[in-house]
Hints:
Elements: H1 3-25, H2 31-63, E1 78-88, E2 94-103, E3 110-111
Antiparallel strand pairs: 1-2, 2-3
Zinc ion is lined by residues 70, 72-73, 75, 104, 106-107, 109.
Amino acid sequence: MEKKDKEMEALAAEIISGMKDWRAQNPKATFAEIERETMKRMAALQARLMAEIACDSEAREWEAGAGPQCPECGERMKGVGKHKRKLQASGGSEVELEREYARCPACGAGFFPSG
Length: 115
Ligand SMILES: [Zn+2]
């Protein structure tokens, strides 16, 4: 199994145990409150999973020579490795990701995929 899959499993396990702790601290929580708390925590996992899936296809395409087009000169850009980047997910959670970063071989412009 890949390292990032393990990280995601750890995140899921953290949500489950975190919800159990939260329930223990909030024994009188209503169903609506439980739902809200669960969704808030799940949003972090959802954002992470979405980003992982997006990054995977990105990296594969770029390796195959189908990098994004340079916004400056129109040359085909090349993936030059991963850079850390923060992404805002719905529900307000922030996820730090390693995104593929591209550079233009012709003019040197850099490119981070959006979203
Ligand atoms: Zn360029």
